[in-house]
Sequence to fold (499 residues):
Amino acid sequence: MADRPTVLTKRTLDKDLDKLTQVEDASKYVSRKLVAPGIGFVFLGLAMLFAAIYVFGRPDAGLVIAAAALAAYMAMNIGANDVTNNVGAAVGARAMTMGQALVIAAIFEILGATISGGAVVKTISSSIVDASQIPPATLSWIMMAALMAAALWINLATWLNAPVSTTHSIVGAVIGAGVGALGPGPVNWRVLAEITSSWMTSPLIAGVIAAGMLYLVKTLIIYREDKITSAKRWVPVLIAIMVGGFTAYMILQLERMNAFSTSTIILIGIAAGVIGWLVARPLVNMRAQGLENRNSSLRVLFQMPLIGAAALLSFAHGANDVSNAVGPLSAIVRVSFGQPLIRGSEPPLWVMLIGALGISVGLLLFGPRLIRLVGEQITKLNPMRAYCVAMATAFTVIVASWLGLPVSTTHIAVGAVFGVGFFREWYTRNSKRRIEYMRRKAEVWMLEEPDDPNTHEVRRRRLVRRSHFMTIIAAWVITVPASALLAAALYWAMVALFV
Fold:
């Protein structure tokens, strides 16, 4: 049989197809990174369209539309940078996945901003600088410069993985633009002193509350012979406190109607707490079935209250930090409509919606970047510790929002995390209950450390990483002056270009 002739041809088509496949894969990889910025630009366009509906036909409609875009951009940056405050502890403790945490945070951010965000917006829009001393047109450009400066600074901080304070950024920017425009005269230094004092005290208060709650959890649940029985008794009580406190706060938001007295609000909060306890008790008992008497079992029982605390914290964050985005926009809108800008004026609802939706869009698109720093890298968190952090932060922010103080949720959340970490260091060394518990559990108990080469290493490694503490403090210190200088420079540039 004759040999077949050799075919001297190349598989050019196959090689070309392989190259095209590689190009398609590379294009998909590159385009994947562009999806989030693309959606962000779409949201900015929608915010501008939304604003145009309300100011169409007015002489300064273009300024308001541009301010709406800047407010939406600022809100997205807040969502991207501050998401760690809401769910960092819960994700770090592995009580919920990143996707679940972001969805819960997005929903409750919107609710908090629209229901309870008005009080802090009033402070940002009309109290830091005295609007009565500033011509309306100048005030609008001051707020425009402040929005742009704060948004750019927060965007840079997010890119550098630094959890800076968005509140510090906008307050510093408003002051910087105001001083750059008219000097220090219009700055309301008394209000600024109140805000600054709250910045210093709120993280300390949150740290103390978080440490106190952790002390109760350790004393009443963790270092007990029968952990599961103790958890079944006290976890529903913790849930009841959370439900009652949140209900009382929500009732306080209805005080504009003067519908309830203080005693009535307290009774409603207690009643809600009792209902929460009655609902939580059978649920906790059901989850406790079959669990071993170990600390790992407590993590399962604390997942439900931790998720509730994360949702409550997201509500509190939306109520307080939406002002950082829409406070300046509210001032610009009121000036545009010729309305008096006085302390106590309510912001328009459509302005609040831009801020609320912007925060949620930002945290969904860009939020996970910083979540591990607060949730995992400062100190190790389990569900019990994370619950204490979330509850301490939520209650501190809620009280500040009720008082109209634009506190830093970043300050408060990180303060609570450090409070838990430093308390663990102290408790590990000094708690008699823990020492007695470990004595009973251990077969051999050594009161003194063994003399081995690792002794100095054990002493060196502590439960709180001081390097992160110093880095975060440094970021906080430079935020106000940096945003103030940037806002002043942007104000001069805007006036030179557009006025």
